[in-house]
Amino acid sequence: MPTFRVASTAPVIEKGRVLFAMYCGRCHGGNVVSGGSVPDLRYAEEPTHQMFEEIVRGGARREFGMPSFAGDLTAEQVRFIHAYILDRARESAKADAARR
Known about the structure:
mainly alpha
């Protein structure tokens, strides 16, 4: 379960869900469930969360095929997406634990 936190509310997470579907889902999978060709963000490690905006807007992972969305997303919108991803990560961790 991720320990990284982003201040969020249910409406923020919903905004993040919509933005994720528009900008991220085609590569990172619907509902943040990757098909395996790109990272499954539900299982992202702490350093990825720490530099999330730098990755999404700054192009920090461009050499790995992750484009910059600086022209498409504001810092606030990136925070909404991050909140949604973290919410999905916690849901998945709970589901995984319940199956054990």
